[in-house]
Amino acid sequence: MGKILVLANNDIGLYKFRKELIEELLKGNDVYISLPEGEYVKKLIDLGCRFIDTKISRRGTNPITDFKLMIRYKKILKKIKPDVVLTYTIKPNIYGGMMCRLAKTSYIPNVTGLGTAVGNSGVLQSITIALYKLAFKNACCVFFQNKENAEFINGKGIIKGKQKIIPGSGVNLDYYDVLDYPEEENINFLFISRVMKQKGIDQYLDAAKYITEKYSNTKFHILGFCEEAYEKKLKDMHDRGIIQYHGMQSDVRKFYKVSHCTIHPTYYPEGMSNVLLESAACGRPIITTNRSGCREIVEDGINGYVVEQQNSQDLIEKIEDFLKLSYEEKKVMGLSGRAKVEKEFDRQIVVRAYKDEIKMI
């Protein structure tokens, strides 16, 4: 049996978006997972994974904390002696990659998005790019989730070796099966994301206020963790009936079932939007921004609409365009999205890409 070590920054993403890969890796291998304790860790252990509790400050920039993470990774590598290491997200990619390089251990990083540290120019970007160069130098293969991220990294001369673009995390087409399109007594719009500025929540709330006042049969739903800065505003708009805030949800399929359209007005540096993949897989039209990680999933006017970033008026106009469609046109738009993800974003494409690389290692 081989030993495979997975470095990640949270249990939820690992279980929800990489469960099928882990199940495949567990066939004939011991799989170790290094990440912080969380509610989905037990599910991962039940699959057969061996859990290593590893604290990570996901958004912190304290060098002492990050140095401790590097030392933690070094000790884990020395103890486990894995045949290959898979890393996800910025800190595991960088610090895990650097320690794998020093330990002469084979590793495959996955760039799930560049994040704000790289997305915004400045000192922090320069430091992060320098760290990426150190981390990716001896990688067996670097996986990217969209073309724009790959072009940016390659433009900085970070990668000298093998690389591949994969369709994000893909989507489980059985779990997110196509759903019957709901009747139109009320038109339900859905926002699923962390409630934060860069995810486009301001534009969504602007649109909700305008549309609900003009079209009484519309409802705007929000799912996801709410950052403190928006707690009061969401409560106020919920109490006034402009939006319906449902908080964090472990299974969003019941909301897709009654939803007519998913709106994802993000301008955060995405890898590939899982929300859009899941929505399209369920046969729901999507409205999203013209940026990498989103535009790849939507064909404007075919399975949804593309809007300008941080442009509330453009979002309002696209929502009105959607409302003008007949019931059958909305339904066909949703089914077009399903056909697209079946062809281009099946999660098994991602699983096969990993299996091929690991087999070569």
TrEMBL record:
GO molecular function, one term: glycosyltransferase activity
Keyword Mitochondrion part of the UniProt annotation: no
Record keyword Transcription present: no
Keywords linked to the UniProt accession: Transferase
Membrane spanning residue stretches: none
Glycosyltransferase subfamily 4-like N-terminal domain: residues covered: 3-146
Domain Glycosyl transferase family: start-end pairs: 184-334
InterPro entries: Glyco_trans_1, Glyco_trans_4-like_N
Protein name: Galacturonosyltransferase
Organism encoding this protein: Natranaerovirga pectinivora
